Each structure stands twice: as structure tokens, then as C-alpha cells.
Amino acid sequence: MATTKATPKPKINLLGFEQGEYKGAPSTLCPGCGHDSISSRIVSVCFELGVQPYQVAKFSGIGCSSKTPAYFLGRSHGFNSVHGRMPSVATGAIVTNRNLVGLAVSGDGDTGSIGMGQFKHLVRRNVPMVYIVENNGVYGLTKGQFSATADIGQKLKYAGLNELPPIDLCAEAIIGGATFVARSFAGDPRQVEALLKAALSHRGLAILDIISPCVTFNNHEDSTKSYAYGKEHEERLHDMTFIRAQEEITVDYEEGEAIPVKMHDGSTIVLKKLETDYDPTNRVAALSRLDAARENQEFITGLIYVKQDNNRTIHDLLHMDEQPLSHLSADQLRPTKEALDSVLADLY
Amino acid sequence: MAVVDYQTEQQPAEIAREDVNINDFAIIVATPNGSGSQTANNTILRACFNMGIPVTGKNLFPSNIKGLPTWYSIRLSKDGYQARRHKRDVLVAMNPASFGDDLQSLEPGGICLYPDDSRQELSRSDVTYFPMPVKELVKNSGVDASLRDYIANMVYVGVLAHLLGIEVAEIESALNKHFKGKQKAIASNMNVVNAAVAWAAANITTQSPFRVERMDKTQGMIMLDGNAAGALGSVFGGVSFVAWYPITPSTSLVDALNDYLPELRINKETNKPTYAVVQAEDELAAIGMIIGAGWAGARSMTATSGPGLSLMAEFTGLAYFTEVPCVVWDVMRMGPSTGMPTRTGQTDLISAYFLSHGDTQHVCLLPSSIKECFEFGWRSFDLAERLQTIVFVLSDLDLGMNQWISEPFEYPTEPMDRGKVLDADALTAVGDWGRYRDVDGDGIPYRTLPGTNHPKAAYFTRGSGHNQDAKYTERSDEWVANLDRLARKFETARTIVPTPITVNEENATIGILSYGSNDPAIIEALDRLREANINAAYQRVRALPFTKEVGEFVAKYERIYVVDNNYNGQMAQLLRMEYPELAGRIIAVASCDGLPLTARWVTESVQKGEA
Fold this sequence. Notes:
The structure holds two protein chains of two kinds.
Chain A (H helix, E strand, L loop, with lengths): L33 H16 L6 E5 L3 H4 L9 E4 L5 H11 L4 E7 H7 L1 H10 L3 E7 L2 E2 L5 E2 L8 E2 L3 E2 L7 H7 L4 E6 L3 H13 L3 E7 L15 H7 E3 L1 E6 L14 E5 L5 E6 L9 H13 L3 E8 L7 H4 L12 H4 L3 H9 L3
Parallel strand pairs in A: 1-2, 1-3, 3-4, 4-10, 9-10, 11-15
Antiparallel strand pairs in A: 5-6, 7-8, 9-15, 12-14, 13-14
Chain B lengths: L20 E2 L1 E9 L4 H14 L4 E6 L8 E9 L12 E4 L5 H6 L6 E5 L12 E5 L1 H8 L6 H4 L1 H13 L2 H11 L4 H21 L6 E2 L10 E4 H11 L4 E4 L6 H14 L1 E2 L4 E2 L2 E4 L3 H14 L3 E5 L1 H6 L1 H10 L3 E7 L16 H5 L9 E3 L4 H18 L2 E7 H5 L1 E4 L17 H7 L29 E3 L13 H21 L4 E3 L6 E6 L3 H13 L4 E6 L1 E2 L3 H9 L2 E6 L5 H9 L7 E5 L8 H12 L1
Parallel strand pairs in B: 1-8, 2-5, 5-6, 6-7, 10-13, 10-14, 14-15, 15-17, 16-17, 21-22, 21-24, 24-25
Antiparallel strand pairs in B: 2-4, 3-4, 9-18, 11-12, 16-23, 20-22
Helix pairs in contact in B: 1-5, 1-6, 3-7, 5-7, 6-7, 8-9, 8-14, 18-21
């Protein structure tokens, strides 16, 4: 594995903030929940990258995962909306203020069932933001029903045997036209952090499907969404290193061993190949790899698909002005009396 | 084109002037849906309007793209009445499928124009018939075969022009407006009109008992539909974000926004739009988007109708409880379910007022004219942002999709009210704030917008229980305190929503109360009732919640007739609930047949009650 030199974390970041200023309220989730680990990764990544917390807008739907935006980035506005329909709220907000850094958290129930339609349309519109699915295959708040991402043959105390095929949210995203799609594991914090950094540097919608074990309802030995299963079966497609625009690339790799992906903001992710010939910029290859993983019950993680060129975001599609709609003055909002007179002139 | 000369056989028979109905009759044009009669009908309407005659045009159409019967009714009223008229005097029967029924619907003494190749039985002897050589005139016009079906309708425009005395120059001017000056389209239509006029002049030997004559009653007036008026008002209210999903009869409201916004809301320096219109995947998403946009600081709106409103119910509760400003236009149609989607009704009054689960109640504006559609277009945003809540504007198909004449719209008389928003400077000045604190005692809290550059700006918006500082709570006292404040806010709303318009009548013994597009029928009915020695005062409610004037009006008369265009008498129900001590005097006068109310029905209903 390629590693960067370990440097002690600075006490303050580029913006002069301490890490504590990126924290949220104390979590009320079950101790050991995968979601809390992801919240911690969000805090440290935003701190490290120097993300301006006042410009972040957090979004979520309903469910355990959707509670988490209260538990990170307390200095950022957040909107905990309704079940499965956070994408629409986020779309309205991000279109209104294009300067916002959108950070959305959903779950497998929220995205894969009630929210499937909005998820697909969010992808289609390429609303620029990071969309994390904290995926545990189970409904926690209602005490243990299967979600649509549960694997065939899974067993739960409440729900018995699952005989329905799982929905693969990464495949759905790629088919829908997503330009950044990754899968990870809450028990692999290093990879989660690298992917989060890359996602925040992406121009467009970045989907992160993170398997995040539910310690209360779905962490038993034969669960494919448990910590133990993840630790044992995770197959990383590549080792990832995120390098900020300002930093020098110091990672050593042989030509052909790694793929450097240049992000829109000037940063780079170096993907050192672990699986030969996996090219995350090839959409069809990405879909076949996901399909093979499904067929062979493989738990593959990493940056599954990325497209950096010609990504038209919803702002481009709407040909919008650079000035956010939320910043328009009364004069800009209300046309003049002369303008009304001219419209009325045609109606006499 | 080929000009055909017709020989005059004899002079038209004269009708004495006192037997001629001038400017006070109704024309009904029956066509198969999708036959392109809209241009012809608008042309007649506009030409009469240009001649200074008060007119209204109503499209009665089926939920169908092509083939089913459709009707267009044009009412001319020298007295300026704009309601649907129960009588049909002049029939243009272009649809064989509905010919029999259409003919039966004519008043005795009416006239019937029909294509001369129609093989319909002319079963009534109290009607004068005018066969028109439609096929021949169209063929002779030389117009491209693919356009013949559309242009055929211009034949009845020409024949009507001759029979009724509509000025041909005004027909040309109407076509000029309709085709926005496109000469080729105007010329090919005028060719047929002129040919039809020439044919009629040469061949029609009977004079029509219905005539139009120039007046001066539309001087300085405009003509438009309510949906376009609402859209225009919204633009002058500063709408910046629109999300919507197509549904009849609200679609043309968004179409009009898409017409006006590119004209009026472009940044002149960058040549780019300073607005966004997003066609959503469904109404669930449309309302979610406008809530997100309102939360982030845009003046946001959607337009929908009954079924869409139902889909918006859950999100409406969220907007109410998280206190996010946004505006929903509900252009009402017949329900429940798909109902009769192309027919009018005031069917959503109660469902909109209480939309969502939990204890919700909403500000609803009730426009009754295109002028009010414009006014409530901009005012709804001021109310939404002042009150930090979702505001409904309840229009209906009749008001929204039909053509109405009006005085020109007034430019907004008040500066924009963006409500209680704290920016970074204000946050520094106040020091300490909480999202849901009632600082001013009016129940309206202060909010900040995401992206505000201040360490204290952020708060967490949640539909779950929250205390006055927007923190999660399940404490009963905090929950109750929040609902108490929302109730105070609703009382504040009661003092700032549009007040009713009251027409007091000397010696009035009864009151009539109504709202929305029923207004023209009631205005006319008041005159008829007066003739029958019934003096009624009239109050038109313009918003929910009821303002104090409503209670005063209900308390003033022993009998209050509440006129609704829905089955259950929804306004009457709301009044009985609001004023239980006065419930006994409230008499519901409700009709729900898919049609706009007529003065005759209102008059007879009240007379029956007074008998």
C-alpha cells in the first residue's frame, strides 16, 4: 500500500478554524453505529481541507442516517427534510444559492425505496453536491425490516428471510448518468476520508455508497452488512491518495501501476491499482465490474466511476447567472413599472 | 387565391330594430376537440372586444387531445356582465357528433350556423338556420391541404361577421395580434374570412335577430386569462425559483412564466437568467424544490391542481412547521381523484386550508378576477416571507384558463417585504438569537439564510420536535410552546391578509357571501334580485383565515347565503366552524356540475330560500 508521510495534524486549518469548530451535537445513535464513524470522517475531512463551514448546507431525509447532519458541522445550516425526498429540497437550495457546498446524507431505505425516484432525478440533473448513502440493509428506527439493498438470503430477527434481489445504488447512479460514484465501508476510515476529499473536489454530484453496519439489527455473524463481514471481505479496487491542488505529488508509483485523476478544482486522486486493469473512467467497465461483484457476492470498494470532463451541472443546464438567486436585490427581483406598462400594452 | 363571385338572389328580410338583440347575447361554437378552433374563437372574441363591447370567452373542453366534443362560449353583454350565461342564442354547429344536443340547447328564436354538407336533422322550427359552404370556400382559398381543417373555422368567423355585423377590420386586427404580426398566417386566414363574408353578403337572405354594434365600454381595458395574470403578478413579485409538474388546468400558468421571465428577468450585463424554472419529476419533488429554494432565500413557487395538491400534503406540513416561505398556486378543477380534469370547481378550499397531517392551517388567497390574480401574484410572496410560511393561492379553471376583460393591472403599490431575515451584520448586532423565538410577540421568528458568513448564523431545520432554538426536543412543554407561537402567528396572519370586499345595499335583509370566480355571477344576480324586490348585501371573502370583517358581516344579517362552486358547500362549512354561534343563519348555496355558476342559478337559489 502506498502511504504518505505521517505528519501531525495542525491545530488550526487554512481558514484558522480548529477541528472542534467542525463538530456537531452529540450523537443519539447506538454506540458503535457505522454512521457515527462516517460523521467523524466528515468532520476531519472538512477540517483538513479547510471547507468554509458557513457555506456548507447539510441535507438529509428521514431515518437513522438522516439524523446525522445534526452530529457534524454545527456551524453549517442543515435541513432534515421528509422521507426519500431530500434530493428535491437540496435541488431547490443549491439552485437558489450556487455558492453553497451541498453535503447530503441519506440511507438505504431513504434512497433505495421511497426516494428512488428523486435519487435518479437528482443524478440526472447533476446537482453539484456530495450525496452519502449510509447503507446498512435494514430499517433501524422501525426495528429491523429489510431495506431494498439487503442481499438475497439475508436473515433478520424481525423480518425473517430476504428473497428479493438487492438494488445496487452505485449501478443505479452510473446508469442514471452520475459522474462520481464510489463505494466504501465505514470500517475503512482511510478510504472513506480519501473518497470524501475527492467527492468534495468534484464538479457535479458525487455519490458515496458507504456500507455502514447497524450494530443493533444487522451486525450478526451471517450478515453481509456487518463489521466482521466487511473487514473480512472488502476488496479494494485501488489504494487511494488525495492530493490537494497546492500540494506536490509525492506518492511513488510506477507508470501503469496507478491512475492519477485530476479533479476540477486542481486536486488529484492517485489510484494505485490493486485489481489489474480496473479503469474507473470507463463507464461500461464500471457497470460490468459491479455486475460481476453482484454475481460473485464480492464486496468491492473504491472509486467505481469518475468523469471529470464536460460535466454539465444543473446550473449549466439552466444557463444560470453567476450571481446566486438568494443574493438578488429588490431592484433585480422586481421589474420596473415601464416593463409592466410594456407588457400591458400588448393586452389592450 | 381564387375569388368566387356569388349572385345575390334577393335582399335580406328586414327585422325591426326593437326586435333586434344588440350586444346582449351568447354565441356557442361547437367543434371536435383538436380541430384548431381556438384561433377562430379568439378572433371573434377579440374583434368584439376591439369594438368596445364587453365580452367574455369560455372554453368548455374535454380531457382529450383529439375528437371529443368541445365548446367555446362567447358572451356579449352591453351591461358588462362577465358570468357564464345560461342561454345560448347563436349556435355555430361544426361538430356532427354533438349537433342534436347543441341544437336542443338553443333558445327559441336562436340562430344556427352549420356546414352545408352536414347531414343532420334540422329538428327545430323555432330556430333560423344558416348553412355555410365550408368545404367549398376552403378549397377555393387555395390554402395548403394540410391546413384546411384548421382554416375551415375561419368560414364561420366570416359568416358571423356578416350576420352579426362584426367589423372585418377588427377581425384582421385580432388576427394580427394572435399571430404576432406574422403576415403569411394572417393573410391565409383573412382570405377565408373575406371569402366567407363575400359569400354571406351575396347569399344570405335572412337577417339575424342578433347584432353587434360598436360601444365604448372596453376603452382602456385589457383582456387576458387568470393564469397568465397570476404568472405576471408573480414575476412582479420577484419570483426567482419555480418548480412544477404539468397538470391541467395549471400548466398554462407556468407556460406564461416561461414566456414572461425570459423577457423580464435577464441580467442585462451577462445576458443570463436571474431565475430558474425546473420541471420536476412529480408534484412531490416540485414542492420539495420550492421549499429548499425558499429556505435558501429565493422567492419560490409552484402551480398545481387537486391531485397535485394532495401529493404535496406531507411537504406542506414540513413547510408549515419548519416555517419556510413559498407559494403554491392551486388552479382548482373537479375532484376527487382525476375527477373531471378540464371542468371547473372550487373543490379544494377545505383541503388546502388544512393541508397535511398534524395541526396545520394555512393562509389561502382567493382571487376572483384577473386583476386580483396579478395582485395576489406579487402579494403572496410578501405574505409568505413576512409570515415565514407556505401560502396558497386558490384560483380555478374558469378564472385561470378563460379570457376576461379588466382594467389594467396596477404596479405593486408596496415595496417588497422580505420579512425577518438576519444577515451577518444583524447577527453581530443582536448578539444572541434563536430560530424560533418570538422576540416581537407576533409569533413570527427571525431566520438566517444558509451561506450567511457568521459563526452564529447556522441552525438546524427539522420537521421533528424543536424548541425555540431549533434544537431537537420531545418535551411536552416545548412542543406546546411552539404550537402556541404558531397559533399566535396565525392570528397575525389574520390581520394582514387581504380583507373582504363588501357591497352594502340599503335596506338589505339578507347577506350573500362568496369568493373567487363566483363573483361575476353574484354581481349580476344582485341586480336580478333587486328587480324581484330582494335587497341583498354582498361580501366577497379574499383570504383565509377570515378577517374580523367576515364575522361582522355574518353577524349583521339573519340569513347569509354562502355561494360555493363545490358539492359540500365548503365555504359554508368553514364559516359554521369559525362562527358556531352564527351557524344557524348560514345557508349553503352550492353547485358542482363542472361549469361556472350563472346569475340565474344564484338568483333562483336565493329566491327559493326567501320564498
